[in-house]
Amino acid sequence: MIELYESQRAMRNMRQAAMQRGVIAVLDVGTSKIACLVLRFDGSDRLEADGIGALAGQAGFRVIGAATTRSRGVRYGEIDTMQETERAIRTAIQAAQKMANIRVDHVIACFSGAGPRSYGLAGQVELEGQVVTEQDVSRVLSACDVPDYGPGREVLHAQPVNFALDHRSGLSDPRGQIGHELSTDMHMLTVDAIAVQNLAHCVKRCDLELAGLASSAYVSGISALVEDEQELGAACIDLGGGSAGVSIFMKKHMIYADSVRIGGDHVTSDISMGLQIPAPTAERIKTFYGGVVATGMDDREMIEIEADTGDWHHDRRSVSRAELIGIMRPRVEEILEEVRARLDAAGFEHLPSQQIVLTGGGSQIPGLDGLASKILGQQVRLGRPLRVHGLPQAATGPGFASAVGLCLFAANPQDEWWDFEIPVDRYPARSLKRAVKWFKDNW
Description:
The chain is an alpha+beta fold. Helix content is 35%, strand content 27%. It contains 13 helices and 18 strands. The strands form 5 sheets. Strands 3-2-1-6-11 form a 5-stranded mixed sheet, sandwiched between helices. Helix 7 packs across helix 8.
């Protein structure tokens, strides 16, 4: 537990040092693409004319380099083949550095998958003085009773989502207020340790320092949900290539996260098998002609399939768009049904507002929002990431929600458990003993 706490603190200090030097890179390691953005911090908090600016509490930064490459060696959002992933990350980083014309040493990475699990913790302490100090906040966070979440798991996020002082609940920052008893609710997200270790090792092999880690579901929610949705309660569904991330926000904090191990690549492989065509051809047909709602016109709209197997009759076929939709729709329905099950398990129906926002590359299938509102039974909208200063036009689509969210996470991170100096004698005794060894090995 002490190792985990200190490794996260070390990454936070590294991130602050990189931001003071003025340049840091963010890396979204996905199943279908690896995106890299290079950020320059100018140290000012002035309001940007065409970005979201300091109004949203964003530190003054602009994107000076951006690159994407096809992801290799990643399955279900986790690293599967180290050498191929390393090569893909190097390609993306080098292209972004070339565009920014600057060398980058520190990266903040996000990944999906790794079997995320959410826990709600509570802690309570008596105040030593009348006024709540930073030390009191540290004490109440360390008083949270951490569950025994099993071996081979790693804490990725641990955020206080609510403070209560005496009988007043819903405080976001109790410091400086007067009371007798301070209590807190904390959201803790754990993932498979091996996925984190693989990613840390891969980044190190690319001659880079890892200055932060985040869950894709979390950072997608930061960028795709507008402020009111984060405040009143909303779910963000990040439909990626290998997995669909689910995160629920309330009072501007993530209170639940999970992932479904089915994504857009499964739809592509269904088309590939159903039409007996290679995967790249299936991906192109899905992108140009795909959909999930058939109309009367679709029987007559024919799609030419051009393959190169050498069998002329097999290569020069045509299928109707209705057939393509018939292949795609069951898989998309399956993904949405799984998402529905995750939302039900989280008690999403009890939130005051039940907005659902679809983002990620898979959300661009025509007609998806209508199908999602039937299955999820709520108000559903398609979300694009917030506008960030200097972001190229090519990187403003839903597929870049997690990369843009990672920029916002880097510039203005929410308070986490390890941002506070927890007294050593207050470390939870039994809870996090099986914490990480990789930090000692890798740093």
